[in-house]
Structure formats: C-alpha cells, structure tokens
Amino acid sequence: xxxxxxxxxxxxxxxxxxxxxxxxxxxxxxxxxxxxxxxxxxxxxxxxxxxxxxxxxxxxxxxxxxxxxxxxxxxxxxxxxxxxxxxxxxxxxxxxxxxxxxxxxxxxxxxxxxxxxxxxxxxxxxxxxxxxxxxxxxxxxxxxxxxxxxxxxxxxxxxxxxxxxxxxxxxxxxxxxxxxxxxxxxxxxxxxxxxxxxxxxxxxxxxxxxxxxxxxxxxxxxxxxxxxxxxxxxxxxxxxxxxxxxxxxxxxxxxxxxxxxxxxxxxxxxx
Length: 271
What we know:
There is one protein chain. The protein has a single domain, classed as Porin. It has helices spanning 11-18, 32-48, 52-57; strands at residues 66-82, 85-86, 89-90, 92-94, 99-106, 111-129, 135-155, 160-180, 183-191, 200-209, 214-221, 231-235, 238-242, 244-259. Helix content is 11%, strand content 54%. β10 and β11 form a beta hairpin. By secondary structure, it is mainly beta. The chain contains three helices and 14 strands. The longest helix has 17 residues, at 32-48.
C-alpha cells in the first residue's frame, strides 16, 4: 500500500505575498474633521458636474417663493482683550451642528431676497498664560438660532449672486472648556443665560453663491460675544482671573445651498 506524501506550506510566506494585494480604506488615519471636508468638496464637485439640461429646468423661479436647504463648515476667529491686552487666539473649525433653510423670493432677474432660519455652533479658542510660564487652552462656544434677512444681487435664474444682509441670533446654549496637561474640564454649561454671553447678538454678513450651490460667507457679530465680567478659571493648581473686556467674533464659512429639484422628462428639443 502506497503512502501519500503531502507537502505542508506555512501561511506566513503567503501573507507576505498577498500584502501588495491588500485593500486599505482611503479614509484610514483621517479624523472626522478631514473626512467632513472631503465629503463637502466631493459634493461640491459633483454638483458642479451636473448636466446643463437638468440645471436649466431647475432654475430659480421669478416672483415666486422657493426654499433652499444647506450646510456649512465654519472657520471662526476672535479678538479677546483680557486685563487690557489681547490674548492669543486660535482658529476654530467646526462642521457640526450646522443647518439652515432659506425662503427665497426673486423680484427680477437681477435682484432678490431671502429669510429663513439657521442653527449653528460658533465661538473661539484662546490660550491662557499661567504663572509658571505654561499655558492652557480655553474654548468658549454657543449654539445659535438665527433669522436672517439677505438681499441678493446678480443673476437670479442662474443662481450666481452676491448677498448682503443681517441676522438676529439667540445664543441659547453656552459651554466653556479648559484643556490643560491632557485633561479637559467643563467650567460652565448654561442655557438661555446672559451671564457669560450676550444672549441676543445681531450679525452682518456678505455671501457669494455660485450656480452649483456652493457659497462662501463672511459674518461679523455686532456685539461682543462674551459678557464683560470677571471669571475665576480653575486650571490645575492655579485660579486665574479672566475678564473679557472685549470679545469680537467673526467667521468665514463654506457650504452648499440647494433648492428642491423637480423631475424633468427629456423632449426632442433637449437632445
């Protein structure tokens, strides 16, 4: 009786041979912030590549109300004066939670207006110096509910225009965080309070929108973001007096604003 000889192959060399064929996720190692930017840019490029026939039949109507919904990424800065000197400010980026809905009315081909509502997350980040020469990071933000009024100048049917306007905002959910030595503490968390922020704060804005739905907006808050009051910050073994005598807030945002599209059946003239 013959005995079958079987050759045994170790799986370790095979793993080495298969390494070049392994598929890795393109988002591996990216944070949520970077993924959000990639998704928004991809959405913008997709909108820009839409068929011209579809764009023509979804043009904004004249002398008729229509809605637009969108989202945005916010890059905010601030100028905070504490003890008669400005403290270092760090660019703040947020992608959550920002929603907006507009009610547009175009009077003619070159002029229109809009109102609506928005819910955004605004604030700034500062560096606080400590007696031992080190520093802590102070984050102050608030959720805002706003009602804008904007006036549009440009090509209304095509969707390319400049909008100028103002917005009344309610800073209804304030939060203050301190980051020091790898730890994070929440000093204040207040709802509908005038103790830390100006509860009602109007803003002025300028917005440039393009026909593919993307836009860039600059906004400046008329009143100081923070109340001019002294707060004692507990940072490690220190208690630091913090008085925001001035606290100007402004931001630049990029986003998309799209109207509801209606189905269109192609005709011979479209071919």
